[in-house]
Every structure is written in structure tokens, then in C-alpha cells.
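USER: Please consider what follows.
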Amino acid sequence: MSDDTTIEFLLCNPLQASAPGSGECSSRRFGGLDVVVTPLNSTSTVAILAAMPGGYMAELDAILRSRGIRLGGTDIAHWILCRDGDQTAVHLAYISADREVPVLMPWDLLSDEERRRGSRIG
């Protein structure tokens, strides 16, 4: 993901920050990688979690479905760019199309149930 075009997409994302749980995001395919960017107007993990009552995985699943992205088809990077005034935080999920590659999840955004399941997805 160090390609200049990918980095430009992440840093120059045109969407305005939205409320957690709104499902607002943008996505773009870079070869075998789908990058999804969700800009949020809060850096509070508590507020973000409260806006995802079904948990992060349900939220991610809904985002991927709405974008026509399916697990196993491409690698998927989900960047959650959180801004609140002068504070910025980033959460990242990375799911390889290769099921043998470990999954990276934003642990602090997972529900207790999702944490118990570990990195099992799909």
C-alpha cells in the first residue's frame, strides 16, 4: 500500500467526516487491493462503538456489501480516519484474499463477542 496513488487517495479523501455508524465511506480498487476509507467526526472509541451496536464486523460487512466488495476476491484495507478538532486517530483493518494470511483488525473497535471469536471472519 505504499503506491503514491494509494497514499494520495487516503490523504486527499474528499468525504467530509461523518457521525460514527452513518456508513459514509469511499472506496477505490488498486489492482488486487480494495481500499475503503471511512471518515468520522469523533476520535472517541466509546462514541464509535456506541454507533455500531451490531459490532465492527457487522458494520464492515454492510460497508463491503454496499460497495460490491466480497471477502476473498481482493485484499481489503479499511481505514477509519477519525478527526475531532485538532485530534486525529486512525483505525485499520486488513483482510487478505489469501485466507492463510493473518487478519489485522482494529481491536479497540471490536465488541466483546468479536474479540472472543478472534480473527475468524467470513
Summary: The helical segments are 4-11, 45-50, 56-67, 112-117.
